User: Which sequence fits this backbone?
């Protein structure tokens, strides 16, 4: 089983691949599937902004495109590119909605952290009264 620390380290590592020339804000995510495999993602910006992808949705797309639909947790690390994350980076509303499509709102954990502090939230805590199936 992957620990919070291991999952967070994978998210920090995924930030290194971020393509963020417009905002300078690099985000990495590490998604833990029920089968124990970790899928990573980074944010990918676009000059038109709307086609940009968040790290969390990139990780979900990688997993889902491989036929994986059951997940335990996701760690998210974000901050100014080239620097260690110093503030927690919460998933945006679109990413939370994608999580709602595939994850149990009470058991799926969203792990947020910095080098100093780490916290875990349930999906329901970050998206109460979600629009779901």
Assistant:
């Amino acid at each position: 089983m992957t620990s919070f620390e291991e999952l967070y380290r994978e998210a920090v590592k995924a930030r290194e691949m971020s393509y963020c020339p417009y905002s300078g804000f690099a985000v990495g995510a590490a998604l833990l599937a029920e089968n124990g495999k970790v899928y990573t993602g980074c944010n990918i910006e676009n000059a038109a902004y709307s086609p940009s992808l968040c790290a969390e949705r990139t990780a979900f797309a990688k997993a889902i495109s491989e036929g994986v639909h059951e997940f335990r947790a996701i760690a998210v690390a974000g901050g100014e590119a080239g620097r260690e994350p110093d503030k927690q980076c919460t998933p945006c509303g679109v990413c939370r909605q994608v999580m709602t499509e595939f994850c149990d709102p009470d058991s799926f954990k969203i792990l947020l952290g910095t080098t100093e502090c780490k916290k875990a939230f349930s999906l329901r805590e970050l998206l109460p009264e979600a629009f779901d199936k």
In short: DSSP finds four helices and five strands in the chain. The CA atoms of residues 20 and 87 lie 18 Å apart.
